[in-house]
Amino acid sequence: MAHINKIVTVLVILIMFSCSSDHDNESLSLASYLEGRIFETGAVIACAASDNETKDILTFFYPEEGATNIRYYETINAQVDNSIYSNYTQILLKSAPFFNGYLGKFTQAASTEKWIIITFELDGEVKISNPIRSRQISKPTVWNDVVSLNLSQTGMPGFLWEDNPYGDNAIYFQVVSDIQNNLLSGTYTYENHFQYYNTDNVVLNVTTQTPPALILNNEYNFTLMDVSEDNWVNWVVLKTFKIE
């Protein structure tokens, strides 16, 4: 009889643990977080790439001024419906500053490809990124320094890169930063060229102030991200250059 009671007790504990785990997962879902909240979709600029060495997923986002409670959500795999928010579970990651905090970055090791969403709160609303499809296995990000520089116009360097080199391009993100990695200019173009201080072909500008003049003989960095329609970074260019 005592043996039977012990078995019953173990079963009860297992059932309670199972229910608790299911409840915890449900409470961490994006759908649960949004319940009763005002939210805006497509309101967080975000994309993801695979790390050049570790192959971890690097998710970059632009935290608007005043943004709080920044969260990282992911699905169990890439086969689920990415439009159903109950498929996304919050992963308790701490973001790191990128370009000295102008952008943010989450780093997550993953053995399977997933859908990712970044959220933050601003002005009483939850802001939600478009779903990001990680492709760290099927299409790892290519890192290189291949870009042509045109320094003929003083203080306004031009950059030209191969158009859509790995396919699936939707938009390009360019950053000019100083040698201390402070962002000076952050822009998006559909075209495969950009000139510092010239926004003629810029379709989105995350630079909040007028970019400073570049100083003669100083070194600067150029970063380019080739972003796909599902917000995966196919190609990253990192190049240091000097104003001459």
Description:
It is a single chain. Helix content is 13%, strand content 42%. The chain is mainly beta and 244 residues long. Strands 1, 4, 5, 8, 9 and 10 form a 6-stranded mixed β-sheet that branches. A hairpin with a 4-residue loop joins strand 6 and strand 7 (103-108). The protein is globular, with a radius of gyration of 22 Å. The N and C termini lie far apart (89 Å).
How are the SSEs ordered, and which strands pair?
Blueprint: H1 2-27, H2 30-34, E1 39-44, E2 46-50, E3 57-61, E4 68-74, E5 89-91, E6 96-98, E7 103-108, E8 115-122, E9 125-129, E10 132-133, E11 142-144, E12 148-150, E13 158-160, E14 169-178, E15 183-189, E16 193-195, E17 202-205, E18 219-228, E19 233-242
Parallel strand pairs: 1-9, 11-19
Antiparallel strand pairs: 2-3, 3-7, 4-5, 4-8, 6-7, 8-9, 8-10, 12-13, 13-16, 14-15, 14-18, 15-17, 18-19
Search tags:
19 strands, six-stranded mixed sheet, 244 residues, disordered N terminus, mainly beta
Describe the structure concisely.
With 244 residues, the protein is mainly beta.
Mass-distribution shape: globular
The termini sit apart by: 89 Å
| Most strands sheet | 6 strands, mixed
Percent helix, as a range, is 10-25%
Rounded Rg: 22 Å
Could you give the count of β-strands? 19
- Count of alpha and pi helical runs: 2
SSE topology string: HHEEEEEEEEEEEEEEEEEEE
SSE class? mainly beta
Beta-strand share of residues: 35-45%
